[in-house]
Write a structure and sequence with these properties.
With 528 residues, the chain is an alpha/beta fold. Helices cover 32% and strands 21% of the residues. Strands 12-6-7-5-2-13-14-1-15 form a 9-stranded mixed β-sheet, with helices on both faces. α2 runs antiparallel to α3, α8 crosses α9 and α13 packs parallel to α14.
Amino acid sequence: MNRLYFGDCLTIMEGMNKGSVDLIYLDPPFNSQRDYNAIYKDETGRPLPTQIEAFSDMWSMNEERERELRTMPVLMREAGIADESVEFWRLWMNALRRTNPNLLAYLSYMTQRLLPMKSILKPTGSLFLHCDPTASHYIKVMLDSIFGHDNFRSEIVWKRTSAHSDAKGFGQVCDYLLYYAGNSRTWNPITVPHDPQYVADAYRHKDERGRYRHHEIIRTASMGERPNLSYEYKGYTPRWGWRMVREKLEELDAQGLLIWSSKGRPYRKTYLADGQAPTNLWIDIPGALGGERLGYSTQKPVALLERIIKTSTQPGDTVFDPFCGCATTLEAAHRLGRRWIGIDIAIHAVKRVAALRLRDRLALKEGEDFEIDGVPRDLEGARVLWSRDKYHFQRWAVEQVDGFVTTKRTADGGIDGRLYFGLPNDKDLSSMAIEVKGGRNVGIKDVRELAAVLENDDALMAGLIVLEPFGPTKERNARQFMARAGDLDVMGVKYARMQILTVAEILEGKRFHTPGVAGRGLAEPKLI
């Protein structure tokens, strides 16, 4: 069954079967050093503050990334990467650590996730990595090492927009697709429409079959001589030979596709209706427009993914997108009769995908047509997520109460997220600072620390989410302490400035008691 996962693709790919997917399309972070949060606005249209993470494409070296860097050579060797490439990575890593540590953090993140993709891709499968010039040249080096330089097929240039102003440089209007596949790859030839001006200039002839052009069929001096292509046909022997063997030439003639000019030069008829094979320059697919837009600034059009899927898979094959975002890949795969697997790291994105793409646009039903995995449905599921990935448990808990995770990653401790709300006559949104605790030893100490956050932070409220409920004595002491923080009075309605929720309560539908929350209702938004 089709699957949509919530979580880090690295963790989820570890549980996927080897050789289980036919196509991997990934549109990962580009190392753009930007945060993307414009899709989230409250009911007044006010954008959320820039520090929240819809997803963050900003990278920096930290202790966690340093640990992962040290293990990278081992992971590469375990994945079958040649020793020469591993040694190159080690030298490169040391150089970038001194010259560009932020880029190194991004490359290590990407390499760590590209390695398992090699094992889950079938020998007949293909990989398309979507990128821009920010770090594409670095990523290609890693792809060559992991998937093999000989398996590099093409760098596709996609013109995503017709104009982009840049006062001090050339406007960036293109993205790039790095295409890798083995010799046994699936390849389905397709045709695309011609440029209208090219049609007017080139297709100047017409017969009962339609408009056609003269296509060269004899070799030129630059091609050199080929003995097997040097032969006489109907009294004509080209100096440098034909472009095909005699049998093929005779077949074209029998089909009425050979034509001789008034000067006696042979050509092949190429009809307009036959279309043309796509090149690696894709200028005929515009960016996502109109009703297709879901609000993501980096959203890709369905037509782009349909072209990729048509050429590199067969009906019934499995398409995998480890950074599925607004799930363009999943929609294109479904419309073309392919199975699909999508992963996203943000529960907000998973909710939007399930509501907009799968339910509203494709009329799919969860449990019948697809399954959502990695999202806890009960307390035991939440405990499993905590034991498997503490950080993603924190993400899930924050987003489940309509909050937004902070851009700074923490394993446990610190502010894990914020819930934003609007106050009457205030231009900017206010917030509740949220901390999430999953361990069994949570107590009054954690409540005091949260109170310190409320005292020193600009948040007007503070919320604590706990996986395991307090015992009666702990709960009484915690609530008495929280009551000292007082209330927030909004037009006569009082909201406790410090609040606590258990995961069990959250799963039952309970939420923090706050003024109108920005972003609430994202699970079932309406198409514009």
